[in-house]
Amino acid sequence: MARMLIIGPPGSGKGTQAERISECLGVVAISTGDIFRANVKDKTPLGVEAEKYMDAGDFVPDSVTNLMVRGRLRARDVENGFLLDGYPRTVSQVDYLDDVLAEGDHKLNVVLQLTADDEELAARLLGRAKATGRSDDNEAVIRRRLKLYHEQTEAVVAKYSRRGIVARVNGLGTIDDVTNRLLRAVQPCIPAG
Ligand code: B4P
Q1: pLDDT tens digit string along 2-17?
Q2: Ligand 1 centroid to 145 CA: how many Å?
Q3: Residues 6 or more apart from 34 whose CB is under 8 A from it?
Q4: What's the gap in Å between 34 CA and the centre of ligand 1?
């Protein structure tokens, strides 16, 4: 049973790779960014709340994000394992996730950390802005998101590193190259059955 998360700076390929890895391993991918964007599109109360933070490049408050993830992790399709993408992003989200998993007597098997330098990331996101017009992919907001990653999310990686469950994977190269590296890194960490 694989319980995993993928973490990395904005533009490192989390969403791209989460889709591929979850399909290869037969587990559901849960992207907090995608859930927020779907709510923004449908103009739900959650979407209206999240939109103002996302458009500024800020994190949606933990109080909102944690409850949303808790609900999602109770769904039946998570019973065979999951790959969380984009959560946790703060140390307090790590503590919250620990509690949610402990309720089911579960814990994470592996944290996949994708790495890439800030200039490559900014270039990718500006490229995506041209292709998709995502409202948080403009230069000023991208810089803000990168800054927040260094200020808050690197501490999340450090916390998991102290538990010895982080597999660090180079996010540079073709999308196929990165997928192959991730699959090689993840296989030894998944318990049989
Ligand atoms: P996310 O949706 O997680 O956005 P992201 O960090 O930009 O990653 P994404 O998955 O989209 O990009 P990817 O790296 O795959 O979050 C968006 C916002 O939601 C946050 O800013 C925040 O406001 C909110 N949010 C989400 N989770 C939250 C949480 N836990 N707490 C609080 N707030 C939260 O890909 C980027 C681009 O690179 C793509 O164009 C892709 O094609 C390209 N790419 C990927 N791999 C490549 C490769 N190997 N080479 C070249 N290009 C590549």
Answers
A1: 999 999 999 999 999 9
A2: 10
A3: 15, 85
A4: 9
